[in-house]
Write a structure and sequence with these properties.
Blueprint: E1 3-4, H1 19-24, H2 67-70, H3 74-87, E2 91-102, E3 107-118, E4 122-127, E5 134-138, E6 141-146, E7 156-161, H4 180-183, E8 184-189, E9 200-206, E10 215-220, E11 230-236, E12 242-252, E13 270-273
Parallel strand pairs: 1-3, 7-13
Antiparallel strand pairs: 2-3, 2-12, 3-4, 4-5, 5-6, 6-7, 8-9, 9-10, 10-11, 11-12
Length: 274
Amino acid sequence: MTRETPIRRTRTYPRPISVAIVAALLVTPTFFAAAQTAPAAQPPATPVPKPAAPASPAPPRATPAPAAANSADPARQIAATVQSFYDQTKDLSASFFQTYVNKLYDRTDRSQGRVMFKKPGRMRWDYAKPNGKVIVASAGKLTVFEPGDEPNDQGQVLEQNFSESDLPQAMSFLMGSGRLADDFGFKLLDAAREGYPGGQVLELKPRKPNPHFDRLLFYVETTPSLRGLVRRLVIIDATGNRNRFDFSEFKFNTGTSDATFTWKPPATARRVHM
């Protein structure tokens, strides 16, 4: 049985934050700080709940994959459907519920908030209080703000230049900076056994060894109007730790302003330049 620890703000990295940790971003959240949640927050039910109606404006429709290329391999066909769906998505926002399970320490941390992606190479994660962390990547600059541990601590800000190749591979398809078929091999899992009946669960293994994760799980929508949408992303590392993101309340192609990704941290926060 997984033991839940009380809410606390624990740093597990030395200051300043290393470049490797920045590259990992959301893949291993304990590098930044233990994930925080409000006491009343509860994880979403399994299977992932589906909205009563598609978001407005209507989401993109995945283009069927070429039959000759994928008919003999259902896993590749599903991956192609996911790629097609997000190829037609210029910007995307969603609520997220993050559950990080540390197998070694038998610990579960939960957090939630709102995430936005816009092509090319822009993303923003706003974590709800008491976490309050903000992660923004745009125009070759990464900004990570983490509130302070104590009432008088104004928190710290990491700022670093980056290239699109530094963005987290686990989410590159959302940002228009990666091709799933180029980066991963695929395996179709038993959706019912994975707690997602009525949908499809795709396992992705990186073609090149990745120090931050061993494999990914995509929980893929099959409803015709939303086919190819990833409702849940699970990132599993080599030691069996699981970082799960459940997405809901989607909005697609709303014309999100570029200014959304030029967030300025509090002036009183400590700066860490890399």
